Amino acid sequence: MHKETVASFRQPEKRPKGRPDKEDGGNPQWLFVKLAYRNMKRSARDYLVYLLTMTVINALMYAFNSLIFQNGLRGYFEVEGIMEVMIGLATVFIVLVVAWLIHYMVGFMLEKRSDEFGIYLLLGMEKKDVSSLYLKENLMLGGISFLLGSLLGILFQQVVEAVMFAMVRMEYRLHISFHGRTAFMTLACFAGCYLLALFRCRWKFRKMNIKGLMDAKRQNEEIKEGREGARRILLPVSVVFILVFWAWFERLQSVLGVSVFLVGLVVTIYLFYWGISAWLICYVRGRGALVYQGQNLFLLRQFAAKVRTMQFTMGTLTSLFTLALIGASLALMFSDYENTVLEGKFPFDVQVYSKDVSDNFKEELEMLERHTEVSSHYVYRIYTDKGRQANTWLLANLEAWGTMYQDSAGRPDKGKIEKMLLEGGVYYPYDTYMGISDYNCLREMLGYPKVSLEGTEYLVQVKPRLLGELQEIGKDLEIKNASGDGFLSCKGVYGEYFSQDGHNGADYVIVVPDGVLGRMEPFYSELVAALEGTAPLGLGDRLAAAGGDRLPEFKWDSENGFCCGSDNIISAVLEHEVRDNMIPEIKYMLASVIIPLFYIGIVYVCVAVTVLSVQQLSDSAKYKLRYGLLAKLGLEQAQIQRLVRRQLAAYYLCPALLAIVISGKMILFVSRQFVIATGVPTMPGGFFLRSILLFFGIYLVYFVVTYVGFLRNVQQEGQGA
After folding, report:
1. Would you state the pLDDT for residue 442?
2. Rounded distance, CA 574 to CA 540, Å?
3. Three-state SS across 464-517?
4. pLDDT band for position 260 (50/70/90)?
5. In this structure, is the dihedral angle defined by the CA atoms of residues 205, 53, 99 and 32, taken in order, positive or negative?
6. How far apart are CA 705 and CA 711, in angstroms?
7. How many angstroms separate the CA atoms of 217 and 207, rounded?
8. Would the pLDDT of 383 be above 60?
9. At what angle do helices 48-65 and 81-112 cross, to 10 degrees?
10. I want to staple 413 with a disulfide (CB 3.0 to 4.6 A). Which of 83, 276, 361, 407 is the partner?
């Protein structure tokens, strides 16, 4: 400390309140402000990584929260409110983590500067003055990060909005603007987190004394080695639990079982770090075989002590990494679904359903002629034989349903199946059929080659993702011929995109010779149309108005004539489907999931690596002497650099690797279910691997910055020694 600053704290006698100290040349409060400013600049240098991360998080919060108040997309989508809700929920989760980060860093800086604050008290400052000084410093740091983050957020906002508009196929025009409501929302979140953390520190100040402040560091680093022998059992226990988690997680069926298992997993994460620290300490104490090889003794002892004093923090970081990886993987899954499946989900430009089998769709066709240019259209019927053999086979054999509709012997449970068909809305209550002539007309409209059927054959048209599973369906479907005294043979299973979310059946439609339809009943009517150019906005609403109230817009029960099939991600259960209206709508829904998940993942990983980096950079001051002694003992600079890399790598990789192991199991399970539900042709681990690569880039940047800063501090000391 500067001599003039120290002198200003000496208070040999009490002065009247509010009277400036003329001998010191001014108001003591102004001196506090100057001291707070000086300390703030020093903290900004010491905790630059933290300051930059808070700036980036602030910018991300501003950019993503701007979507809540985005007016450019309002009025275009029926579910436009979903984006605001999802971004708001994501912000809540992020605020919780940011609050923890700010609380952690404020407490961490307090601990690192406890000696300094103890000296302030020795010089005569009151506790409230010291806490006020610390409050001012952190408010200055928070204010700087907020201002810089807001400026950077305006640029990030353009990127986020451009991506959003591109995802929903809308033109975006670059514009620089400042959203006051977004800035206020971001400021409120940050101010709330900062003030909560600072007031808690103020409460700590009031309870501290000079001795407590001077001993704070040593108390935190104390290791009670007498307990390590008992605590090391926690390592094998936690490893066993993680192995059990890997083996049994997919077999859990009940919500209660999964909840209990996940709570146990969280506890295990924290116990793991207790156990590994204790095990390393005992290993070093027992002079294990690897202890005296190279610099292992130095590294093992430091790593064990660090993990021991940061066991809660390391557990929290592992949890953050796990959530970040899961969030990013889920976002990539939905993004892959959007790019791979969605385009084929609506192969027809326009498709209209009617429960009235005599409907000729006159009103709809007239409306289409008025508002669009129709290149071709076709009206046809879907039929039924009042049977359920195809429905039963699918429910009992598709991987999507598992054993849900099987009895204990693995056979179809007729009671469960009948109840589902009448109430569940997955399939129609009866099998659905189409004539070969109608089928070929539709194939021609879609650009598919025509197929032929003999009078003794039938085929099954299914969704592409189910093609592999339905190759054996023909062995069990006994379809009677036109005369009803014999059966047709299965020619094959076709898996092109054919709009089978309730329109042309659900998951499947059986195609038979036209003559066979004579012994069946018309089930419902369909209209399909091909348009020239792009359909106008709101065409689906106009179709609904033209056709009247045949069926409510959204209908899920098959008893009333509509269903969706086994699509578990996006099911467009609509009477009127307009491709150019539906795809942007669904893309908007998917974007409302993808963007918040990426938002959460990026922020969480930045928070986690910030804590790791700040911890190591702050401790570099403590390691200066140790590495200086190693240099004096003969270690060359290259060896010291390698030692620093190994130390940092062990510290950085520990929470990341454990997070990969834990999240890997969850993502592999979820991704397999995702493939079953969507048919996206991605290997089960593909999404997870891409997430790891994505965050590895962020991780590497922080590691390099930390390594350079750590090495510079160590080498400076070594040169000074």
Report:
1. 96
2. 10
3. HHHCCCCCCHHHCCCCECCCCCCECEEEEEECCCCCCECCCCECEEEEECHHHH
4. confident
5. positive
6. 10
7. 17
8. yes
9. 170
10. 407
